[in-house]
Design a protein that fits this description.
- By secondary structure, the chain is of the alpha/beta class.
- It folds into three domains: 207 residues, FAD/NAD(P)-binding domain (3-Layer(bba) Sandwich), CATH 3.50.50.60; 117 residues, FAD/NAD(P)-binding domain; 115 residues, 2-Layer Sandwich (Enolase-like, domain 1).
- Helix content is 32%, strand content 25%.
- It contains 14 helices and 22 strands.
- The strands form five sheets. Strands 1, 2, 3, 4, 5, 6 and 17 form a seven-stranded mixed beta sheet that branches.
- Strand 13 and strand 14 form a beta hairpin.
- The longest helix has 23 residues.
Length: 466
C-alpha cells in the first residue's frame, strides 16, 4: 500500500456528467485539477444506466409499435417479430461508444485521473482507495445516485429487478409488476408492454407522474391503458411472496386488498444520493434528511470551499441541470468568489413515453401551491391537423401566463415529440416573452409546433398588453 501525498488546486470526486463538467471548467481556468472516480464503470448514470440506454430501448419499442399499428395508414403489417438479444446488443454498442469517449475525455491530460474511491480525512484531504492521500484547496463532490433500498424486507426475500439490471438483460419475462409511477416506472412499463410483456403498474400516490398536473397524468394513464397496461394508483404495499405461478405483490387499492402475480417485479421507486462511505462529517459537509448534500445557490456546501453538483445534491435529477451545477461550482472556484448562481426558472421535465410528457416553468399545481396568480389555456392534439395525420390522438399543450402582463410562466405538453416541442416554450421563457409576442411568431403549417399558437392567442385575447 502506498502512502504518497499529492496536492491540487481542486479535486472533483465523481466522473459523470456533473463531475466532468466541473473538471473541464476548472482545467480551462488553469487550475491543477484531479478527478477521482471509484465506480465499477466510467461514464456516469446518464451514459451507463440512464438517459442514453433507456432512450435507445424506448425508441426500439416505438419502432415496433408503429409497425404493429401501421394498418392505420393503410399498411398490412407483418407480426413485427423481434430478436430482443439484437435490441440489447445494439444498445450495448451505442453505450460503449458514449462511455469510451467519456473515458478518453477524462484521460486526455487536462486533469489527473484516479480510478479509485475517496473518503475525507479532513476538509482539505481525502484518502484514496489505493492508500494515497490527496489534498486540494477546493473540492467538488459529484458522486451521483444509486437505486433506493427496497421498502419492505419481503421484497428483498422475493427478489426483484431494477432499472440497472433490466437495462442489461438479454431476455424479458412474460409478465412484470412495475412498482412506482415516476418517469422511470412509466417509461419501462410502456417499453415492456410494447415487447409483449404483460405489465401491471402499482403507484403509491393518487396519480402517476405526481409532480405533473393531474390532466397530464390522466392523458398518459389513458394511453397506457389502451396498450394493455393495468395501472393502480392510491395504493399501499402490504407484502411480497412467491408461489408456483410466480412472484406475488399484495397491496391495498382504495381500501380493497388485491394481489397481482407476475414472473418478475421491477423496483422503480426512485434513487438515493450516493454519499455513504465518504466520511463527509470529517469535512464539515452537512446532508439533508433525505441524504442529499445541502448546497446553496452557488453550489457551496456547509464547508464553503467544498461544492457539490448533480444527483448527490439535487434538487432536480436531470442531466443538463447536473452539468450546469458542475459548471457553476467550477466557475465559483476559479473566480475565487462565489458569484455565479443556479437559476431554476427554466427547469424542465420530460418523460419519454408515448405520448411524451413535458413541462417547463410553473405547472398549475405549483402555481397554486406558491400562490402565484395565472391564467391558463390549452389545446388538444386530437383537434390539430398534423397530429391527426400522425394518428397522435392523445394529449394537449397548455400555457400559463401572468394575468397582469401576459408574461409566460410555464408550459406543458402531452403529445407526439413533446420533449422536442417544449423547447419552444423554454426559448420563449428564456427571452421573457409574453403570450402576445409568442402568438405573433409565424409558425409553418402543417406542423406540430403551430399548436402552441392556439393557447397563446386565447390568452392574448384575455390579457391587455402592459
Amino acid at each position: 500500500m502506498s502512502d504518497k501525498s499529492m496536492s491540487f488546486d481542486v479535486a472533483v470526486i465523481g466522473g459523470g456528467s456533473a463531475g466532468y463538467a466541473a473538471a473541464r471548467t476548472c482545467a480551462a481556468g488553469n487550475l491543477r485539477t484531479a478527478v477521482i472516480e471509484g465506480g465499477e464503470q466510467v461514464g456516469g448514470l446518464c451514459i451507463l444506466r440512464g438517459c442514453m440506454p433507456t432512450k435507445a430501448l424506448l425508441y426500439a419499442a416505438e419502432v415496433r409499435h408503429l409497425a404493429r399499428t401501421s394498418h392505420v395508414w393503410g399498411m398490412t403489417p407483418n407480426p413485427a417479430a423481434f430478436d430482443f438479444t439484437s435490441v440489447i446488443t445494439r444498445k450495448r454498442a451505442m453505450i460503449e461508444d458514449f462511455a469510451s469517449y467519456r473515458r478518453e475525455q477524462l484521460s486526455d491530460g487536462r486533469f489527473e485521473f484516479f480510478r479509485t474511491s475517496a473518503k475525507f480525512l479532513d476538509s482539505h484531504t481525502v484518502q484514496l482507495g489505493t492508500g494515497d492521500t490527496l489534498s486540494a484547496r477546493s473540492f467538488v463532490i459529484a458522486t451521483g445516485s444509486k437505486i433506493s433500498p427496497a421498502p419492505m424486507a419481503s421484497l428483498n426475500e422475493v427478489g426483484y429487478l431494477t432499472s440497472d439490471s433490466l437495462l442489461d438483460s438479454d431476455r424479458l419475462p412474460k409478465s412484470m409488476v412495475v412498482l412506482g409511477g415516476g418517469a422511470i416506472a412509466v417509461e419501462f412499463a410502456q417499453f415492456l408492454a410494447r415487447f409483449d410483456v404483460h405489465t401491471t403498474l402499482i403507484q403509491r400516490s393518487g396519480q402517476i407522474l405526481k409532480d405533473f398536473d393531474a390532466d397530464a397524468a390522466r392523458e398518459l394513464e389513458s394511453s397506457l391503458g389502451e396498450e394493455g397496461i393495468e395501472v393502480f394508483t392510491s395504493t399501499t404495499l402490504t407484502n411480497f411472496s412467491k408461489s408456483s405461478d410466480g412472484k406475488m405483490v399484495s397491496f391495498e387499492h382504495e381500501g380493497v386488498a388485491k394481489t397481482v402475480t407476475a414472473e418478475e417485479i421491477l423496483f422503480a421507486l426512485g434513487r438515493s444520493p450516493n454519499t455513504d462511505g465518504m466520511d463527509l462529517e470529517r469535512a464539515g459537509v452537512d446532508r439533508l434528511p433525505n441524504g442529499r448534500i445541502a448546497t446553496n445557490k452557488h453550489q457551496q456546501t456547509s464547508a464553503p470551499h467544498i461544492y457539490a453538483a448533480g444527483d448527490c445534491c439535487g434538487p432536480h435529477e436531470i442531466v443538463h441541470i447536473a452539468i450546469q451545477q458542475g459548471e457553476t461550482a467550477a466557475k465559483n472556484i476559479t473566480n475565487g468568489t462565489p458569484t455565479t448562481s443556479m437559476d431554476y426558472r427554466l427547469i424542465s421535465s420530460i418523460v419519454f413515453t408515448d405520448p411524451q410528457v413535458a413541462s417547463v416553468g410553473l405547472t398549475e399545481k405549483e402555481a397554486v401551491r406558491q400562490g402565484i396568480p395565472f391564467l391558463a389555456a390549452s389545446h388538444p392534439f386530437n383537434d390539430h391537423g398534423k397530429s391527426i395525420i400522425m394518428y397522435a390522438k392523445h394529449g394537449f399543450v397548455k400555457l400559463l401566463a401572468a394575468p397582469a402582463d401576459g408574461k409566460i410562466l410555464g408550459g406543458s405538453c402531452v403529445g407526439p415529440v413533446g420533449g422536442e416541442l417544449i423547447h419552444e416554450i423554454i426559448v420563449a421563457m428564456a427571452a421573457n416573452m409574453t403570450v402576445h409576442q409568442f402568438a405573433a411568431i409565424p409558425h409553418y403549417h402543417p406542423t406540430l409546433a403551430e399548436i402552441w399558437t392556439y393557447p397563446a392567442e386565447e390568452l392574448a385575447d384575455q390579457i391587455t398588453p402592459a
